[in-house]
Design a protein that fits this description.
ABC transporter ATP-binding protein, four-stranded antiparallel β-sheet, ATP-binding, binds adenosine-5'-triphosphate, 8 helices, ATP binding, alpha/beta, 24% strand, 234 residues, nucleotide-binding, Rossmann fold, 11 strands
Length: 234
């Protein structure tokens, strides 16, 4: 039987002004599926991703990820769960400026023994895994490794952030507008790697983008649309 990756039931979320931002009666995603989520600016795509990552909790209703109900977990349990099971590609990349490029990519494997073990199994070592993924993303030049991550181009930072999310094959990858800063060639290379890595590791991919031309690469599509109560619904 197929395992469920994400279940949302009767979710309502607002930012404190009593106007619903999101109102989602039902949403389900199976393990290994890849969903493309779109919606107008301000419709709550990033808010939804933050809830799926356990960073924000809904007002009412529930979110279950890999059969874990976030509302019943302590903050420390949530941190551990995130580190072990979820890879994030953020809109603002969130690279750490005081770490080298390679250390940024390896970071999640330092926090999660599970991801570290999977990276070692796949690539021989965490560092070799980081280098292999960076090379596949077109970042193989040794000179780049010496650079401050803040001195990399936006597109390069986006790809470093993708390698960091993928390394150690987390079960869920959450990507918020990951191709927005890439040219067409880098975008296609990036998406091909992301999809093939998810396929290889059986990861579930939750991908938010404005770029509708990418939709056809995904097995599932969802759209945030205005709902009757004023918020947006999937
Ligand atoms: N920290 C916050 N405090 C209060 N309101 C917020 C906060 N973050 C987002 N919002 C509001 O929640 C709504 C949804 O924002 P969100 O960033 O999730 O939308 P989005 O669909 O990702 O937008 P975009 O496509 O422009 O990135 C917006 O009205 C936004 O102003």
């Amino acid at each position: 039987m197929k395992k469920v990756a994400v279940t949302i039931d009767d979710l309502v979320f607002n930012w404190g002004d009593h106007t619903p931002c999101l109102s989602i009666p039902k949403f389900e995603l199976y393990c290994g599926e890849k969903v493309f989520i779109k919606g107008p600016s301000g419709s709550g795509k990033s808010t939804l991703l933050n809830m799926l990552g356990g960073v924000l909790l809904p007002e009412t209703g529930g979110i279950r990820v890999l059969e874990h109900d976030y509302s019943t977990m302590w903050a420390s349990q949530l941190d551990r769960f995130r580190a072990d099971h979820i890879g994030f590609i953020f809109q603002q990349f969130n690279l750490l400026p005081f770490l080298s490029l390679l250390d940024n990519v390896c970071l999640p494997c330092r926090f999660s023994a599970k991801r570290r073990a999977r990276a070692i199994e796949e690539f021989g070592s965490v560092e070799q895994g980081a280098e292999a993924l960076l090379a596949r993303l077109g970042l193989a030049e040794a000179s780049l490794y010496q650079k401050d991550v803040a001195a990399l181009s936006v597109g390069q930072q986006q790809r470093v952030s993708a390698a960091r999310a993928i390394l150690g094959a987390p079960e869920i990858i959450i990507a918020d507008e990951p191709t927005s800063a890439l040219d067409t060639e880098s975008r296609d290379q990036f998406l091909a790697l992301l999809l093939s890595q998810c396929e290889l590791s059986g990861s579930t991919l939750i991908f938010v983008s404005h770029d509708s031309s990418l939709e056809h690469h995904f097995s599932q599509r969802a759209q945030l649309m205005p709902s009757a109560n004023g918020g947006y619904s999937l």
